[in-house]
Design a protein that fits this description.
InterPro entries: UCP028704_OpgC
Low-confidence stretches: 1-6, 386-391
Number of helices: 16
Helix content: over 70%
Structural class: mainly alpha
GO molecular function: acyltransferase activity
EC number: 2.3.1.-
Shape: globular
Radius of gyration: 22 Å
Protein name: Membrane protein
Enzyme class: transferase
Distance between the termini: 36 Å
Order of helices and strands: HHHHHHHHHHHHHHHH
Number of domains: 1
């Protein structure tokens, strides 16, 4: 997403912040319990998915209006191909380097994570190539790929007035996911085509639940552009007060009790479940979203540009992949988080991990500038030759 007319620095900065939070959560250090879900019972994943969908709707809907629906489809599908290439590279790295390190070091944190691959390597490799097998940590890009493939069709139908029923269907799928619709469909399909992968090996994220966040962001981004960047209507005061109450309640609750809402009370914990995007978790996210929509524009005008975070957000795909590589390497070498490990080691791992994020983002920006400069030099040379001027 490189459109200069629709790119907004504050959205890039927010995505950069989400990438930092994801890194601190996934690196096996004790800082994960401190920085995880800092705003309540909402993780960086929810914010990252929603923001990515919003920017996709904003940028690609603009391309569809400017260049036509075919150009928009090609842009979406081209991004899906890039995501697939990244997923295959990450899977290959995990199945070779990471698996080798874990087996040699007898590291259960990784051998358990890759248990299906270690038991059935050929089936796992073929299933991973088909996006059926997705080990933990490597299960977010596959759902992004599905979202990217479907999104142009969604936007095209939305522009024809179908947003209402599509959002209703999306909400119904989220509701079904709360009652096991995903495993039910997997079981039905299993009886027809004998899928080689168990449902629990297809990834922790329930795609039928998380698609709702994507649909919501895509709708807001696409219709925002169609509205011509007009100011959004004011949010009712009663709604803001309810959102503030919910956000503050979850914030205090999370930091008073911990990341598990009520230890030992499964019925309540399921309502805040991350993987199925439980009802109370979704309400917490919606409360934070309403507050961000109301107060965000004013803050964006008052705050200085957060260029360090913006840099990360602009290279979000490369930085996301780098954070996964570093997290897997740390798991393979150090194992899971433990109180027996020195705080100095945990601090060093975290500092090196964050430094790796900015190094990746800086290298990505440098490479893009070099490519643009090379393209500019080639174009200048062509124009000179065409004009007959001496070189």
């Amino acid at each position: 997403m490189r459109s200069t007319d629709t790119r907004r620095w504050e959205l890039d900065a927010l995505r950069g912040l989400m990438l930092i939070l994801m890194t601190t959560t996934h690196l096996p250090t004790r800082y994960a319990s401190i920085t995880g879900q800092p705003l309540g019972f909402v993780s960086a994943a929810e914010g990252f998915v929603f923001l990515s969908a919003y920017m996709a709707g904003l940028v690609y809907a603009a391309r569809g209006r400017r260049d036509g629906e075919l150009a928009m489809r090609r842009a979406f599908w081209g991004r899906a191909v890039a995501l697939y290439a990244c997923q295959i590279a990450l899977i290959g790295f995990a199945f070779t380097v990471i698996a080798g390190l874990a087996v040699a070091g007898r590291q259960p944190a990784v051998t358990d994570l890759l248990a299906f691959y270690l038991a059935q390597p050929l089936t796992a490799m073929l299933s991973a190539a088909l996006l059926l097998y997705s080990p933990a940590l490597l299960d977010i890009l596959p759902i992004y790929i599905v979202f990217m493939v479907v999104s142009p069709l969604v936007i095209m139908h939305g522009r024809r007035g179908a947003w209402g029923w599509m959002l209703g269907l999306s909400l119904a799928l989220w509701f079904g996911a709360q009652f096991g619709l995903g495993p039910l469909l997997h079981g039905a399909l299993q009886r027809v085509v004998a899928l080689p992968v168990r449902y629990q090996d297809m990834g922790a994220f329930e795609i039928l639940a998380w698609q709702f966040l994507w649909m919501l962001g895509l709708w807001m981004g696409a219709t925002r552009h169609e509205a011509g960047q007009k100011p959004m209507p004011p949010i009712p005061r009663w709604m803001l007060l309810l959102a503030l109450f919910m956000a503050l309640l979850c914030l205090v609750w999370r930091h008073a009790i911990g990341q598990v809402p009520l230890p030992g009370v499964d019925a309540v914990n399921r309502m805040f479940d991350k993987w199925t995007l439980g009802p109370l978790r979704l309400l917490d996210f919606m409360a934070l979203l309403l507050l961000a929509l109301h107060f965000g524009p004013g803050l964006a005008h008052r705050l200085p540009r957060l260029r360090a975070l913006e840099l990360l957000g602009r290279a979000s795909l490369q930085v996301f992949c780098a954070h996964l590589v570093m997290s897997l390497v740390a798991l393979a070498l150090l194992g899971a988080t433990t109180d027996q490990r020195s705080w100095w080691i945990d601090t060093a791992v975290l500092v090196l991990g964050l430094a790796g994020l900015w190094a990746t983002a800086w290298a990505t920006r440098a490479l893009e500038r070099w490519r643009r400069g090379g393209a500019g030099r080639v174009g200048s040379a062509v124009r000179v030759r065409a004009s007959g001027a001496p070189r």
